[in-house]
Amino acid sequence: MSEFVPITAPARQRQQASIGQPVKRRDGVAKVTGAATYAADNHPKDMLHAVMAVATIANGRVRALDVAAAKAHPGVVEVMTPENRPALAKNPDDRDNPFMFRLDLLQSDRVRYANQPIAVVIAETFEAATEGAALLAPRYDVEPAQLDMHADSEAFVPEAVGPGAPAESHVGDIDAGLAQGSHRVDSTYETPAQYHNPMEPHAVVAAWEGDKLIVDTPSQAMTIARGRLAGLFGIDADDVLIRSPYLGGGFGCKGALMSPQVLGILAAKMVGRPVKLVPTRPQMYGPLGHRAPTSQTLRLGMDDAGKLTALSHHARTTSSMFDEFFEPSANISHTLYASLAISTTHDAVRVHTGTPMFMRGPGEASGSVALESAIDEAAHACGMDPLAFRLANYADVEPISGKPFSSKRLYDCYAQGAERFGWAKRVLAPRSMRDENGLLVGWGLGTATFPVIMFEAEARAIIRADGTGVMETGAQDMGQGAWTALAQIAADSLKLELDQTVFRAGTSDLPDGGVAGGSGHTATVGNAIDAAGRNAIARLIDMAVADTDSPLHGLAADQVEARWGRLQAVDDGARSEGYADILRRAGLRELEGHGRGRADADVGERYAMHAHGAVFAEVKVDPDLGQMRVTRMVGAFAAGRVINPRMVESQFFGGMIWGLGFALHEKAETDPRTGRIMNANLGEYHVPTNADVANIEALIVNEDDPHVNVLGIKGVGEIAVTGTAGAIANAVWHATSKRVRRFPIGVADMIAEPATAD
Amino acid sequence: MNHFDYVRPTTIEDAVAAASEPGATYLAGGTNLLDLMKGGAIKPARLVDITHLPALNRIERDEGGGARIGALVKNAGLAYDDEFAHDFPAVAEALLAGASPQLRNAATVGGNLLQRTRCAYFYDPASACNKRVPGAGCDARDGLNSNHAVLGFSDACIATQPSDFCVALAALDAVVEIAGREGQREVALTDFHRLPGDTPHQETRLAPGELIVGVRLPKEAAAFAWHSRYLKVRERTSYAFALVSAAAALKIDDNGTITDARIAMGSIAAKPWRAYDAEAGLIGSQIGIEAFAAAGRAALAGAAPSGDNAYKIPLAQNAVARVLARAAAGTPRELPALPGAPFATATGELAHV
Amino acid sequence: MSLAIQITLNGESRAIELDDPRITLLDLLRERLELTGTKKGCDRGQCGACTVLVDGRRVNACLTLAASLEGASVETIEGVADGPELHPVQQAFIDHDGFQCGFCTPGQIMSAIGLLREARVHGDPERVREQMSGNLCRCGAYAGIVEAVLDAERLTARESERGVA
Ligand SMILES: Cc1cc2nc3c(=O)[nH]c(=O)nc-3n(C[C@H](O)[C@H](O)[C@H](O)COP(=O)(O)OP(=O)(O)OC[C@H]3O[C@@H](n4cnc5c(N)ncnc54)[C@H](O)[C@@H]3O)c2cc1C
Ligand code: SF4
Ligand code: FES
Ligand code: FES
C-alpha cells in the first residue's frame, strides 16, 4: 500500500446521515442467536484439546511432574513440558517495546508467580486433558516469595510508568504550597489487585498448515500479535492469520498476546494437529495481566477560599519479578485541578505475581479513586460543598503543562449532571440524610477524565461497479461497537447509505486496524476510514471530471461533491451522475482508496487533549448491617464527537459499573504465605451483578473539538471508570461519615470502628 | 475431574446399596458436587445418580399443616410453591436469597443440606485442610479467614456451613428423613450438622450410604407463618454467599407480647446455629427494639473471632435484632423484590437509628 | 464404558452416546454437538454464560452432568428464533442494547426466557434485576438487559391477550 491521504480536511465540513445516529448493533442478530463465533467456538477437523497445568507456588522450581501418570490417562496424547516443548526463534523473555510483555512459555523449570503455566496436556477430549493436567501432581523446590508491597527497603523509582510516562512531574514548590495553605489533607489510599475478567477467556484454536499458522483468538491488536507470533516462531508475518471477529470483552488483557495463547499454538505445533486451549477461569488470575495494587498518599493544601495551594500525589505500586508495567496512578493529578504547586511521584516494589498490565483506565482508574476521595476530604476540610470546591479549583489550562485544552466542557458536565441528579438538595454535613425507611443516604461526586490517545491504523475503501462500497480494516470489536460505529463512519466517508456499505474487519489479513485500546480505536480507525473514503471519492471525482462523457466533465475537482452514491456539481445539483456510471464507462470493476489514522504530533504539542465528565452517585447504607447499595448514578460526559449515541451510552454505563465494582466489590485476595490468589473465580472475586446496578443514567454533553483529529473524536471506553469509584466512596462517607481509604469498601468497614474518623 | 463409575438406580434400596461402596457418593443437582470435583477437592470413585428415583420430588402437606418435602424437590420449586411459601415464608425467603435462579432450579433440598463449606482452603487441593484431608492441618487458621466461624469452631477447623435454606429450617425445627440399609430414621435438622471438634471431616450425622429422602416441617412451624422472616447480609446485592444471616419466627399476642420465638443464624458456625437462650429471653417481652437488641446479644453469647472476623459478632447481633423486627412487623403478603436483603425495609425497623 | 441418553434437544428427539461419564451438558453441546452458542465463562456455576433450559427451566449447563439428563428436554439459544424470525426477547436485547461484547448474551437471553416463563416479574425492574443476577455481564449491559426483559414481558403479555381475544 503506498497511497495515503494526509488528514488535512477541515474538521466540521461533514453533515452526513450515519454519524451521530443511534444505529442498532449491526452484529446484533449474530450475537442474540448464538451465531457469532468467538475463538473457542471453532472446531477444525482433527482438533485436540489442551489444558494447562499451573504452578501452586509463587517462587521456586518445578522439581518433578508425573508425566507418566498423565500420559497413562485414557485420551491423553502428549504432555508438553520445558523438556520437550518445540523450539522458539525468539526468547520469550525478550522485550522490544512497552506494549510487549515477557511470556511464560515453558522456557525453564523456574516458577515466578502462582498460576504460571508449567506444562500443557494435550488430549482427544477436554475431559481427558483436564484430568491429565491434574495427574501431573507437580512437586516443587519452594523458595520464599516476596509479596509485600509495603516493603520500603525494596522500593525503587521506575524509569517510566504506564507506557512511557515520566515517573515524576513537578510544577511549583510543593512544600511552600503546603505551608501556605490554611487547611490540609494528608491521606493514604489503598487499592487492591484487580483482574480484568472478560467473560470470554483467552481461548485459542491454532492450526498449522506447514509453516503457515491460522489462529482463532481474541485480540485487541491483531497486527501486533501477528508480529509477535512471527517473531516467536521465526516465520513471516504474512504467514500468520489471526481471526478475531468478536472478542468476549478485552479491557486491556487482550491487548498483547499472552502466554496461554502462545502455548496453545506451541501445542498444535508439537502434535501436528489443530489444538484448542482455553484457560480456566482460575487460570486467568496470573498469566493474563491484572491491575496492580497501589498505595497512594495525597497531600493537599488549601487556602481560606478553598483554592488548592498544593497537590502532592505519590503512588506506590508493584510489578512482577521479571517484567514491567507500573500503574501510573499519580498522573491523574496532572490535569484536573489547578493548584499553585503540583507534584506527582511513583515508586514500586517487585513481587512474585504475574505481570500487571493495562486494565480499563490504567492509572486513571486507581489514581482517580484516590484523588477524588482526597478532593472530597479537602472540600470537607474547607467546609465547602464538593461541587463548589471542584469549581473553585477548575483548571482552565492543563495544570501540569500550562497548555490550553483542545476542548473542555467539564463545566457543562458538572452543571448538567448536578441538575439531573438534584445535587442542590444535598445536605452539607455527612450522616444527615435518610430515606423513608431510615437507611443512611449519601451523595457523592467524582470528576472523570481520560486522555485522547491515538494509535496508528490503515483502511482500504472500495467503490464497486454497482455503486456500493466496501471498507476494510483489521479493526477489533470487543463490545465497544466497532462493527457498527466504524461502519457508520465508512458509509459517510463514501457518501453512501449504511446498507450500501460492506464493512470488513476482525482478521489480520486486512489493513492494519491498530489497537482497540486506550479508548482510541474509534478515533484512530475512524480517521483512517474517513481518509480512505475521501481518497476513493477524490479519485472518482478525478475520473469524472476528466471523462468527456461525464456531465461533470471539465469541472475543477473542488467544484464536485459526493452525495448518496452520486457525484454532483457543487452549485448545480442537476449536473450529477451515480458512482456506478463512472466506473462502468471506465470499465473498472472497482476503485480503491487508502487512508491512515494517527495522532498529529504537532497538535499534541500545542494542546492538552482530554475527555471529561462528572459522576454523581447516591449510596444507601444500612446503619446496623453495613450493607451498601448504589441506588442512583448520573454521569455526564463530554468526549468530543459522538459517532453512535446508543453505543456511547453503553460504554459509559459499562465504565460506571466498573467504577462501582472498584469502589465496592473487586479485590484479589492473596494468601500472604503462598502467594496464591484464594478467590480466583467469579464466585468470590466479585464483579457487580445486575441487582447491584439500580438506576443508572449517562448524559452525553455535546462537545465540538476542532483539534484532536479530523472527525473530532475523543474516546469513551475508559473515562467513566474514573470519577465513578470516587463518587461512590464519597457518597459512602457522606452517608456514614466513615472515610474508608482501603478499597473495596466492605461491610466490615461499616461495622468495625471506622478505619479513621474524619 | 477424575474418572468415575456412573450408576443410575431407580429404587431407593438400589441407591443405598450402590452408595454404600467406599468412594461412592450421591449425585443430585450436582451444583456443589461437580463444582468440587472440577476443582479436584473431592474425587469420588462412583456417582450414584438419584435424580431418577421416583417419588422424591413431591411436596406433601399433612392435615395439621405440616409439610413433607421430598429430597429431590428443587430449591426454586419449593420456594415458588405458593401454598408452601404462604405457610413457611421464612423458608421461601431463605431459598430465594441463595445462589442464583439457575442454581436454584437445579439444586435439590437434600443437596442443599449437604453442601460443603465455602472455605477457600477446602476448595484448594494445594492447601492444608483437615476437613478435606484429616490431620493435614488448617491453612485458614492463619490465612484469609474474614468470613469464618465465630461460634462452635475448633482448633482443627474454623469453617462455616453456608446454606441459607438450613437456617430457616433450623429455626422451624425441621426434621431430616434418612434411608439407610437398616431402613428409615430421622434426625432433627439442628442435630444433623456436627461441629468440627477434632473431626471436621465428619460434617453430618449421615452414615456412609445413607440417603436423605426428605425434610419434614412439623405443623407447629406453620403456626409462625404471620411473623417469619429471613435476612442475609452480603458483599454484593445478589448471587453471593452470606457474611451472616438470620431467620426469625414469632408468635405475638394482641398486646404485642411475644408468646413464642425462634431464632437461627447462618454462616457463623459449622452448622445453622439455633439461639435457644435468645428465644427464651424473648418470651413474655413486648416487641420492640430493646428486646430485639437484647436477643441479638444473647444469640452471640460465647462468640469469639476465629481470625480476622471480629466484625461478624456485632454484625450477627444486629442481624438478629433486625430479622426479629421484620418478623414482628409481619410477613409481607408478597416476598420483596430482593428476598432477604437489608434493602426495602419496612419503616421503623432499624435498631440503631 | 459407554453411556447412552435420550433427550429432546431444541424440539428434536436425540439419542446420544456419551464417550465419557464426566461430560457436562455444556461440553456436550459445545464440543460434541456443534452447538457453540452456549458459552463457557467459568465452568463452575458462577457466571450464567452457559444458561440453557432443561425441562423448561433455566439451569447452568456447566454444572449439569449430561448422563443424568436421560429423558430431559433441553433448549439452547440455537433453538430460540423461529427461522429468521427473532424471539421477542432476542429482538428486545437488540432494541435496548442489552449487550456489548455479546459473550454473556446467549446465557442472558435463555435466562430471560426462563424468567418470563416463571411469570414473576410483573413489570417491576427491581424484580428483573434480582432475577437476572445469575448472569454476570462484565461489559455492564445491565440497564439494557432490564429494559429488554420488561419490554419482552409487555410484548408477550399483549400477544397473549390478543391470542385470547
Ligand atoms: C456459584 C454458587 C453460588 C451459590 N450460592 C449459594 C447461596 O448463596 N446460598 C446457598 O445456600 N447455597 C448457595 N450455593 C450452593 C447451592 O445451594 C448448593 O450447591 C446446592 O443446594 C446443592 O444441591 P444439589 O442438589 O445441586 O447437590 P449436589 O451437588 O448434587 O450434592 C451435594 C452433596 O450432597 C449429597 N447429596 C445430594 N442429595 C443427597 C441426598 N438426597 N442424600 C444424601 N446425599 C445427598 C451429594 O452426594 C453431595 O455430596 C451456591 C452454589 C454455587 C455454585
Ligand atoms: S477452616 Fe476447616 S475447611 Fe477451612 S482449611 Fe481449615 S480445616 Fe479446612
Ligand atoms: S459457565 Fe456455567 S455458570 Fe459460568
Ligand atoms: S455483553 Fe460482554 S459480558 Fe455481557
Automatic annotation (TrEMBL), chain A:
<protein>
    <submittedName>
        <fullName>Dehydrogenase protein</fullName>
        <ecNumber>1.17.1.4</ecNumber>
    </submittedName>
</protein>
<feature type="region of interest" description="Disordered">
    <location>
        <begin position="1"/>
        <end position="25"/>
    </location>
</feature>
<dbReference type="InterPro" id="IPR037165">
    <property type="entry name" value="AldOxase/xan_DH_Mopterin-bd_sf"/>
</dbReference>
<dbReference type="GO" id="GO:0005506">
    <property type="term" value="F:iron ion binding"/>
</dbReference>
<dbReference type="GO" id="GO:0004854">
    <property type="term" value="F:xanthine dehydrogenase activity"/>
</dbReference>
<dbReference type="InterPro" id="IPR046867">
    <property type="entry name" value="AldOxase/xan_DH_MoCoBD2"/>
</dbReference>
<dbReference type="Pfam" id="PF01315">
    <property type="entry name" value="Ald_Xan_dh_C"/>
</dbReference>
<dbReference type="InterPro" id="IPR000674">
    <property type="entry name" value="Ald_Oxase/Xan_DH_a/b"/>
</dbReference>
<dbReference type="Pfam" id="PF20256">
    <property type="entry name" value="MoCoBD_2"/>
</dbReference>
<dbReference type="Pfam" id="PF02738">
    <property type="entry name" value="MoCoBD_1"/>
</dbReference>
<keyword id="KW-0560">Oxidoreductase</keyword>
<dbReference type="InterPro" id="IPR036856">
    <property type="entry name" value="Ald_Oxase/Xan_DH_a/b_sf"/>
</dbReference>
<feature type="domain" description="Aldehyde oxidase/xanthine dehydrogenase a/b hammerhead">
    <location>
        <begin position="33"/>
        <end position="144"/>
    </location>
</feature>
<dbReference type="InterPro" id="IPR016208">
    <property type="entry name" value="Ald_Oxase/xanthine_DH-like"/>
</dbReference>
<dbReference type="InterPro" id="IPR008274">
    <property type="entry name" value="AldOxase/xan_DH_MoCoBD1"/>
</dbReference>
UniProtKB/TrEMBL annotation, chain B:
<dbReference type="InterPro" id="IPR016167">
    <property type="entry name" value="FAD-bd_PCMH_sub1"/>
</dbReference>
<dbReference type="InterPro" id="IPR016166">
    <property type="entry name" value="FAD-bd_PCMH"/>
</dbReference>
<dbReference type="GO" id="GO:0004854">
    <property type="term" value="F:xanthine dehydrogenase activity"/>
</dbReference>
<dbReference type="InterPro" id="IPR005107">
    <property type="entry name" value="CO_DH_flav_C"/>
</dbReference>
<dbReference type="Pfam" id="PF00941">
    <property type="entry name" value="FAD_binding_5"/>
</dbReference>
<dbReference type="InterPro" id="IPR051312">
    <property type="entry name" value="Diverse_Substr_Oxidored"/>
</dbReference>
<dbReference type="GO" id="GO:0071949">
    <property type="term" value="F:FAD binding"/>
</dbReference>
<feature type="domain" description="FAD-binding PCMH-type">
    <location>
        <begin position="1"/>
        <end position="222"/>
    </location>
</feature>
<protein>
    <submittedName>
        <fullName>Oxidoreductase protein</fullName>
        <ecNumber>1.17.1.4</ecNumber>
    </submittedName>
</protein>
<dbReference type="InterPro" id="IPR036683">
    <property type="entry name" value="CO_DH_flav_C_dom_sf"/>
</dbReference>
<keyword id="KW-0560">Oxidoreductase</keyword>
<keyword id="KW-0285">Flavoprotein</keyword>
<keyword id="KW-0274">FAD</keyword>
<dbReference type="InterPro" id="IPR016169">
    <property type="entry name" value="FAD-bd_PCMH_sub2"/>
</dbReference>
<dbReference type="Pfam" id="PF03450">
    <property type="entry name" value="CO_deh_flav_C"/>
</dbReference>
UniProtKB/TrEMBL annotation, chain C:
<keyword id="KW-0408">Iron</keyword>
<feature type="domain" description="2Fe-2S ferredoxin-type">
    <location>
        <begin position="3"/>
        <end position="80"/>
    </location>
</feature>
<dbReference type="InterPro" id="IPR002888">
    <property type="entry name" value="2Fe-2S-bd"/>
</dbReference>
<dbReference type="InterPro" id="IPR006058">
    <property type="entry name" value="2Fe2S_fd_BS"/>
</dbReference>
<keyword id="KW-0560">Oxidoreductase</keyword>
<dbReference type="GO" id="GO:0046872">
    <property type="term" value="F:metal ion binding"/>
</dbReference>
<keyword id="KW-0411">Iron-sulfur</keyword>
<dbReference type="Pfam" id="PF01799">
    <property type="entry name" value="Fer2_2"/>
</dbReference>
<keyword id="KW-0001">2Fe-2S</keyword>
<dbReference type="InterPro" id="IPR012675">
    <property type="entry name" value="Beta-grasp_dom_sf"/>
</dbReference>
<dbReference type="GO" id="GO:0051537">
    <property type="term" value="F:2 iron, 2 sulfur cluster binding"/>
</dbReference>
<dbReference type="InterPro" id="IPR036010">
    <property type="entry name" value="2Fe-2S_ferredoxin-like_sf"/>
</dbReference>
<dbReference type="InterPro" id="IPR001041">
    <property type="entry name" value="2Fe-2S_ferredoxin-type"/>
</dbReference>
<protein>
    <submittedName>
        <fullName>Oxidoreductase with iron-sulfur subunit protein</fullName>
    </submittedName>
</protein>
<dbReference type="Pfam" id="PF00111">
    <property type="entry name" value="Fer2"/>
</dbReference>
